[in-house]
Write a structure and sequence with these properties.
With 322 residues, the protein is of the alpha/beta class. The chain has twelve helices and 13 strands. Strand 10 and strand 11 form a beta hairpin. Helix 2 runs parallel beside helix 4, helix 7 crosses helix 8 and helix 9 runs parallel beside helix 11. It is globular, with a radius of gyration of 19 Å. The termini are close together.
Length: 322
């Protein structure tokens, strides 16, 4: 099987009440961990690459690693997606360079400017057999070069979604319902604390999601900033020399509910980074004499695999859907 677009993935997910995981990749171990988990659980999967990942690892290296993963996992559909493309030129480069899906994120622009840039990307992508994700509304937080201060985010306006999709021809739409990029998704002042003193985030705006669904029946919705920031790994990072106070994510039960509705793609990045970092910190603390990267990257790769397997089974609901 070769790389596929997300079109058939999303149609099956929408009708099946599950979501496909979109996991960010930056190196070989992350690609391997994600696809080994998806392969064993017979789950479709999206490997997504940010502008920052391309700058770090080189476009050609990333594409070749993903192509190798496809060869190693011929029984599952795998899409290669550009995450948060910020220009036509970047999207074109990825389309010409082997990606099967791109996101154009013009959500920081005016409604008309967003439509114009998105349509430009859609026209080129569709001419080349590639699908396009667009975004309405803005998420708070930091992811690579995407940074929005808390208080500057904006929920998607459901009354705009029909016109936007109709005029742009985009294939899926990322909306803002209260998720946030990064490991610090909310300020403490936005949250409550439970009996253990752990921050509890404000609930997602399912009313916004449900209104978008009514206005776009059958259309795939995307959630960005959907890591849950597992507290056991945060505690491990802090135990072994890290400093991540009050890191908090999106409750997994809320993401599962979103997947049961029209959310067909859920983006997860920080949870993988946190699992890897915690595992490496622990390994190095316990083996101060080791210096071979293979020694600490092997358990880090397993941590990625375990994290992705957990998401597939307990959050996305995509196991057995390949």
């Amino acid at each position: 099987m070769s790389l596929v677009t997300t079109k058939e993935m999303f149609a099956k997910a929408y009708n099946g009440g599950y979501a496909v995981g979109a996991f960010n990749v930056n190196n070989m171990e992350i690609v391997q961990g994600i696809t080994e988990a998806a392969g064993e659980l017979k789950s479709p999967v999206i490997l997504q690459v940010s502008k920052g990942a391309r700058a770090y690892a080189n476009h050609r290296y990333l594409v070749k690693m993903v192509e190798a993963a496809v060869e190693e996992n011929p029984e599952i559909p795998i899409a290669l997606h550009l995450d948060h493309g910020d220009s036509f030129e970047l999207c074109k480069s990825c389309i010409d360079g082997g990606f099967t899906s791109v996101m154009i994120d013009a959500s920081s622009k005016s409604f008309e400017e967003n439509i114009a840039l998105t349509k430009q990307v859609v026209d080129y992508a569709h001419d080349h057999g590639v699908v396009v994700e667009a975004e309405l509304g803005t998420l708070a937080g930091v992811e690579d070069e995407v940074a929005v201060e808390h208080g500057q985010e904006s929920y998607t306006r459901p009354e705009e979604v029909e016109e936007f999709v109709s005029r742009t021809g985009c294939d899926s739409l990322a909306i803002a319902i209260g998720t946030s990029h990064g490991a610090y998704k909310f300020k403490a002042s936005q949250c409550t604390r439970n009996e253990k003193g752990i921050l509890v985030p404000p609930p997602l705006r399912f009313d916004v999601l449900e209104e978008c669904i009514k206005r776009l029946p059958g259309f795939p919705i995307v959630l960005h900033g959907s890591s849950s920031v597992p507290q056991d790994f945060v505690a491990m990072i802090n135990q072994y020399g890290g400093n991540m106070p009050d890191a908090i994510g999106i409750p997994e039960e809320e993401l599962r509910h979103a997947a049961e509705l029209a959310v067909c793609k859920i983006n997860i990045d920080s949870d993988i980074r946190i699992a890897m970092t915690a595992t490496i910190r622990k390994y190095m603390a316990e083996h101060p004499d080791h210096f071979d990267p293979r020694q600490y990257l092997k358990p880090a790769r397993q941590a990625v695999k375990d994290m992705v397997a957990h998401k597939i089974q307990n959050v996305l609901g995509s196991a057995g859907k390949a």
